[in-house]
Amino acid sequence: NKAVTIPSLRALHAAGEKIAMLTCYDASFASLMERSGVEILLIGDSLGMVCNGHTSTLPVTVQEVAYHTAAVARGAKSAMIMADLPFGSYGTPEQALASCVQLMQAGAHIVKIEGAGWLADTVRFLSERGVPVCAHIGLTPQFVHQLGGYKVQGKTIESAEALKADALKLQEAGAALVLLEAVPSTVGKDVTAALAIPTIGIGAGPDCSGQVLVMHDLLGVFPGRKARFVKNFMEGQASIEAAFAAYVAAVKDGSFPALEHCF
Ligand code: KIV
Ligand code: NA
């Protein structure tokens, strides 16, 4: 496989091909996902929940994300490695850069940060210093205590317009990608159409430029509550590798997400 880079993702996007992304936390799964055609491996702070059993992502540290990032980077040869900046690790642009240095020295090619328009200064600061950024907007799980739960965002006309304005501001600040979580499909479609950079959706409808799922959800092994946007791709498959391949195929041909996975 050829290395997945920001220019190669832009080329996929320009050609109208969907981008397949999955969360990944170790070397063995990284190798398997890559062989199945997954373009981006995300070391999500979801690792606090799916690997460590916490009830939110808030306890996760930069050191923990860096440990899993190094493992994933050793297992992958061509996929893009994206690492999450965990809660409390990007309070200022300078602190964000120090956190990114740890993650990129562990093997990340790009970082993902949760926020909204206020994040633009940090995104600009990082991109100008060689750190590509994916801006995560919509439902941002690190804000669970402010949001009052894991709730769909952008349901009103005003909040949908605010999300689009935030996405444009983050693109203007240099974001390489925008991740949209748990927003109505109409918002996913509208924001994707407004941006030049690719969008990655999770619970954001079929019109995003790509899709992401948490690996444990895809395999049906996470014991917690199953979100509407989750699909168990192990059903009907004989191996984990086949489930990853089925996910990639469904993202590429647009059959995932289906209506039942959308808001
Ligand atoms: O941490 C994570 O797994 C994520 C994805 C759900 C996008 O941020
Ligand atoms: Na995350």
TrEMBL record:
GO MF terms held by the record: 3-methyl-2-oxobutanoate hydroxymethyltransferase activity
Compartment annotation: Cytoplasm
Main location: cytoplasm
Bound cofactor: record note: Binds 1 Mg(2+) ion per subunit.
Cofactors: Mg(2+)
Binding residues annotated for Mg(2+), in chain numbering: 45, 84, 114
Keyword S-adenosyl-L-methionine: no
Subunit structure: Homodecamer; pentamer of dimers.
Annotated protein name in UniProt: 3-methyl-2-oxobutanoate hydroxymethyltransferase
Organism: Pseudoduganella chitinolytica
Upper lineage: Bacteria, Pseudomonadati, Pseudomonadota, Betaproteobacteria, Burkholderiales
